Amino acid sequence: MPGSRPDPSVPRADARAERLTAYLRKEATALGFCELAITGADADPDVRTRLEQFVALERHGSMDWLADTLDRRVDPQTLWPDVRSVIMLAMNYGPDTDPLSNLDRKSNASVSVYARNRDYHDIVKGRLKQLASKLVSRAGGDVKVFVDTAPVMEKPLAQSAGLGWIGKHTNLVSRRHGSWLFLGSIFTTVNLIPDAPDTDHCGSCRACLDACPTGAFPAPYQIDARRCISYLTIENKGPVPHQFRRAMGNRIYGCDDCLAACPWNKYAHAAREAKLVARDDLVSPPLTDFLAMDDPAFRAFFSGSPVKRIGRDRFLRNVLVAAGNSADPALVAACEALIDDAAPLVRGAAVWAVSQLTDAAHMARLAARAGEDADADVRAEWRRALCADHQTAQP
Predict the structure, then answer these.
(1) Number of domains in the chain
(2) Whole domain around residue 332: which residue ranges?
(3) Quick check: is 148 catalytic?
(4) Which of 148, 289, 328, 377 is catalytic?
């Protein structure tokens, strides 16, 4: 039978590894992954250098774990000494409509595309475990699976495996899937044949850099997280710095601008094969849907969603910034109600939102009613809001 005998020009061990890889690719496709590729477990000195520079410049902001786990993060064998091969997998989450069209609906919220589905950590990790189990059943050995909560540099590993390249926006870009990819990895003690790494195909394009609302890219292939809307709305635990509030627009969780601008997205397609659990109620929800949310309502609405991880207070902070940018007087009452919220983070954002939607006289009346706040950040918001020119007092 044709194909039933191994090619004598291929060493037997390599032939077995090739068959195993072909099997894994088939099973990965069935699980909703769009790409599988393999790289070795050797550390890349360039990755260490880049991460060390990023941390030294404090561009990681409050994400202290990046510095704390640096050694494990840049070397797979430091994370797990027994690893011999790293299987990198990509899952397409490309949208079927332009995600930036939501930015024109100022009284509605814009939620990052990835967060309009059930939490990808759960989805990807569950399917990685299924594939890893199939690998062990077929080849033996030990495995560990990782999604991006672990100290693993998925993007450099994905580039090394040939899934794509790290673009000027510091995200992975694929010629077949554009910039819309979830990444996961399977570390294994099984020796597999590495794939060829990909090379950079950005050329002279700078569409992603020019699209950033806050100028978060100091240079191509570099990002300052402290200026990134995704960081500001998700990782940042304090008030949103004033200089970025206007630029946030109605983005209440994450930002897709640099990803959506990538020209390679023309080869991407909607993520139907990934079998993601989509949330239609997060495509362009009215801001009013969220302004009255207490903690139980927030937890119930965002059950199974990545949004739940930031908590109700940070979420409402983001919603209030969006409300302040809406120019919609119909939102004033809902924002005013939050000036008395128990959380200082919410109170401060509410003061700013109302100050953007009303005038100084109205703010003075509210201040008299509210009295002096116990929180220093909230008091600072009141001082700024009571300035006669508060509408344009953005530093």
Answers:
(1) 2
(2) 286-395
(3) yes
(4) 148
